[in-house]
Amino acid sequence: MFDKILIANRGEIALRVIRACREMGIQSVAVHSTADSDAMHVRMADEAVCIGPPSSTDSYLNIPAIIAACEITGAQAIHPGYGFLSENAAFVQALEDHDITFIGPTAEHIRVMGDKITAKDTMKKLGVPCVPGSEGGVPDYETAKKVAEDMGFPVIIKATAGGGGKGMKLAKSADDLETAFRTARSEGKANFGNDEVYIEKYLGKPRHIEVQVFGDGKGTAVHLGERDCSLQRRHQKVFEEAPGPCITPEMRAAIGKTCADAVADINYIGAGTIEFLYEDGEFFFIEMNTRLQVEHPVTEAIFGVDLVREQIRVAAGMPMSFGQDDLTINGHAIEVRINAEKLPNFSPCPGKISAYHSPGGLGVRMDSALYNGYSIPPYYDSLIGKLIVHGRDRPEALSRLGRALGELIIDGIDTTTPLFHALLAEDAVQTGDYDIHWLEKWLESNLG
Ligand code: MV4
Fold it and tell me: What is the number of the ligand 1 atom nearest to the C-alpha of 284?
């Protein structure tokens, strides 16, 4: 096992990893920008190294500075958290060259899944059900026209390097196709330096269901059920839950086995998420994320496992501490993302926290790097906390969420907390009857 791990991240996820390290008797090294000298992850880690100025490009994305921090402190491994360098194949390659262990998948797996066409092709060959669409990339408009007409409209054109909704264009009919095709291409080029695109049948009212998988890198893998993350705004998740309210145990076992077998087949190591659109009882693969996700705590809550501890174990060459038969679901968990944003426009709202009180009690987990008197810097993501509740069933988790939100105090800035009080009053949220468009429509008619 490692003696010392460097955490190449900040905020709540850096604390999450430091906590796992401490429980495992591993020393932790924080890295930080000059804007984060007073941040909680710097205080909580055993050691801290300043790696650059406020801009992420020069600090949390600064590969030479992070490798130097590893060498100076003698850290043997790096946990990347989510975002920043977590899905950067070149970073993983650079660590390999310096004999530093990356706590995550191989550079090759990151590369394969980072390119959506290659990812889909790989998953299809591994027996994972995919959205009907083009066979690989679509080189020109003529080909796009032929594929779309054979398949029938509406279709969606997606940039292979896309993500977060960028480089994705809907064509409702043949009239929209040329514009959609050319726009998706140029957005792919402009945002990711890659103009390759592919086409899929457009699904009108799906849910976003993602399956948590975990592999040991040696041909063994398990699944830890699914999360429903359909409540999103501008491709940002807002409210996530596990298990999915519309997924039966039989469906879970079937799609879970398909996913676990697929990642076992490619000797995948560590945590991964296989994303699906789910419509009319069918799963359609869209993407795979090769990192630990923001919403991993809902899975941890219902399975009673520590996913970060497992990531560290397998990265050190140890076996996973559970097999598929050890994994059973206990109750229901919900996470809401508390952002430093002002409603109704969700405009970023950094500033000084004049009072902070975190909720507690049975079934409540607050993952946050906030403290009383902390100043949220303006340079980074607006996520400042995740409130995770766990109950015996979904109604209990929902009422516990309302209770915990009532205890939460964050003064001095605006946060998204009032949104969750309002959402809890909605029938669709209470019954779990929503799709990926529900929240945007609700915001339009209630805050718009
Ligand atoms: C789709 C889709 C409908 N049909 N693909 C959005 C970002 C990217 N992860 C995939 N996305 C979508 N792909 C087909 N074939 C609708 C979306 C989509 C969406 C997906 C998940 C969660 C929220 C969403 C909001 C708008 C569109």
Answer: 15
